[in-house]
Design a protein that fits this description.
Order of helices and strands of chain A: EHEHEHEHHHHEEEHEHEHHHHEE
Distance between the termini of chain A: 19 Å
Radius of gyration of chain A: 19 Å
CATH class of the largest domain in chain A: Alpha Beta
Number of strands of chain B: 8
Number of helices of chain A: 13
CATH superfamily of the largest domain in chain A: Thiolase/Chalcone synthase
Low-confidence stretches of chain A: none
Helix content of chain A: 25-40%
Helix content of chain B: 10-25%
Number of domains of chain A: 2
Structural class of chain B: mainly beta
Number of domains of chain B: 2
Number of strands of chain A: 11
Order of helices and strands of chain B: HHEEEEEEEE
Largest interface: A-B, 37 and 33 residues
Largest sheet of chain A: 9 strands, mixed
Distance between the termini of chain B: 31 Å
Low-confidence stretches of chain B: none
CATH class of the largest domain in chain B: Mainly Beta
Strand content of chain B: 35-45%
CATH architecture of the largest domain in chain B: Beta Barrel
Mean pLDDT of chain A: 97
Mean pLDDT of chain B: 92
Radius of gyration of chain B: 16 Å
Strand content of chain A: 15-25%
Structural class of chain A: alpha/beta
CATH topology of the largest domain in chain B: OB fold (Dihydrolipoamide Acetyltransferase, E2P)
Oligomer: heterodimer
């Protein structure tokens, strides 16, 4: 396998956007192309992740995006893997470049749902669960993660205030990110006093429904060197699976797919979790960030909550988690999120993260999962 | 007998699962090779990978492993509030199953470990109640 690099990256702002799903996907794609310093005609294939294109009257997004980039003759693949779609798309693109099928490809993730309203989105997102056992019995995604939170509180003596601290931290980071959806400083009290959505999770424990698009250009090392601009190397890539329904898991507070994906990515990169300088993880709900940091091997099981209490994962802590603001503050356009994490790592490792720059970072990790972690992908990047 | 009924009436396996749940039972699949209990919707054993099963009907008694109280319910469930969605461990078996539990509006109503049983399967999915 050849070495693969991220040569350029771009995102729209995340939030409630007025433009169509196609327009925002194109805005991010063009931004990535400009960041890479290439012409669209150099792209050999497109990988487009999206979940609810039907909500904005456009599915089969790949050819529509390629056509509007002036490269209608180039193949594309449209990918759905719930909230983990972006990282799956990135992985497929990575694998094709590593295998030598293409030297330059576009990865674009996009979602446009806020115009449908909270009831539509909550209901349609629940179709990402194992519906026969979960959605059909009246549980939403906040409810599924609330069940994980309840189990974590019981098993590890954590408190709701501990989870609230995750939200406070990610909002602090998001305040420094001009493209974040919720740019607002919040306190533990704000979280604790927000409306209960699914006990023990409250509104401020939950990421928002967001519109947005993110895109990256990835290429062979040879192409990156010839191009001459900033690039980062992909040194690890792993995917994993879990029982689709929570009832099928041996431990409610562990997401097996994260552990499997992380093990594969660390092995490929020939490093351990101790070598990671910062990570963008899937914090769709505050409990998820705690579980993620344990499953990725950063902290022992049950100790992720101590890391939050002690400030270890803050921007200036020993291991910054979600410097972008994460899904919680940056926002969660579900088809775009996994690609957006790569955009953040690219910006961090190429000196384009502004005020939220992680000091002396050389190696960054992304972890993005679908549903309650039924599918997961982990990628590791190194500055060049 | 059940097998014949299944063939003649073309009941899907989910229909059979539902018919049992309405009687307060869980229809599961026991692997003939390794005895592992699998959910009835599974085609290959999750433990050993074989696909020879015998259907097993289990008592629907269990205890709460975890749960949430759905304050903001999805579309169609508004009229059922307050309710909980729970994961229960079946008594005497290494098998968890999740479902709907009515009339729960605060955590004190449902400590972890509370004894519950399956009573029905309807438009709320698998329905449980406290024992």
């Amino acid at each position: 396998m050849g070495k693969v690099c991220v040569l350029g990256a771009g995102s729209t702002k995340y939030g409630k956007l007025e433009d169509s799903i196609t327009d925002i996907a194109l805005q991010a794609s063009v931004s990535a192309i400009e960041s890479a310093g290439i012409e669209s005609k150099e792209i050999k294939s497109g990988y487009i992740s999206n979940v609810f294109g039907v909500a904005d009257k456009q599915v089969h997004l790949g050819p529509v995006i390629m056509s509007n980039l002036g490269i209608s003759d180039k193949p594309s693949l449209s990918i759905e893997s719930a909230c983990g779609s972006g990282s799956v798309s990135f992985r497929e693109a990575y694998a094709n470049v590593a295998a030598g099928f293409y030297d330059v490809v576009l990865v674009t993730g996009v979602e446009k749902v806020t115009h449908t309203g909270t009831e539509w989105t909550t209901t349609y997102f629940s179709y990402c669960s194992d519906f026969f056992y979960e959605g059909q019995a009246g549980v939403s995604f906040p409810g599924l993660f609330a069940s994980m939170a309840r189990a974590y509180i019981t098993e590890f003596n954590a408190s709701e205030e501990d989870f609230a601290a995750v939200a406070v931290k990610n909002h602090e980071n998001g305040l420094l990110n001009p493209k974040a959806h919720l740019r607002k400083k919040i306190t533990i009290d704000d979280v604790m006093n927000s409306a209960v959505v699914a006990s023990p999770l409250k509104l401020y424990d939950c990421c928002p429904f967001s519109d947005g698009a993110s895109a990256v250009i990835i290429c062979s090392e040879k192409f990156a060197k010839q191009q001459g601009g900033d690039y980062v190397e992909v040194i690890g890539s792993g995917r994993g699976g879990s029982p689709a329904a929570l009832q099928g898991r041996d431990h409610i507070t562990t997401i097996p797919s994260t552990k499997i994906a992380a093990d594969a990515a660390y092995k490929m990169a020939n490093i351990t979790s101790k070598d990671i300088d910062f990570a963008e993880v899937h914090d769709c709900f505050t409990i998820a960030e705690v579980v993620d940091t344990e499953d990725l091997g950063f902290f022992e099981k049950g100790k992720g909550i101590d890391a939050i209490r002690n400030g270890v994962t803050k921007l200036n802590g020993q291991l910054p988690i979600n410097p972008s603001g994460g899904l919680k503050s940056k926002g969660h356009p579900i088809g775009a999120t996994g690609v957006g994490q790569v955009v953040e790592v690219y910006d961090q490792l190429t000196g384009n993260a502004g005020e939220r720059t992680v000091n002396d970072a050389k190696i960054g990790l992304t972890q993005n999962f679908g549903a309650t972690g039924a599918s997961c992908a982990v990628h590791i990047f190194q500055s060049v | 007998m059940r097998f014949i009924y299944f063939k003649v009436c073309k009941l899907t396996i989910k229909d059979e699962f539902i018919a049992n749940a309405k009687q307060g039972k869980i229809l599961a699949r026991k692997c003939k090779n390794c005895n592992d209990l699998n959910l009835v919707t599974v085609y290959f054993c999750k433990k050993c990978g074989k696909r020879e099963f015998e259907n097993t009907i289990l008592d629907g008694n269990g205890v709460i492993v975890t749960y949430t109280i759905m304050t903001v319910p999805p579309s169609g469930f508004e009229t059922f509030s307050p309710y909980a969605w729970v994961v229960m461990k079946l008594e005497g078996h290494n098998l968890n199953i999740s479902g709907f539990l009515a009339n729960i509006d605060k955590p004190a109503d449902l400590p972890i470990g509370t004894a519950v049983k399956i009573i029905d399967f309807d438009k709320r999915g698998l329905v449980l109640e406290k024992r």
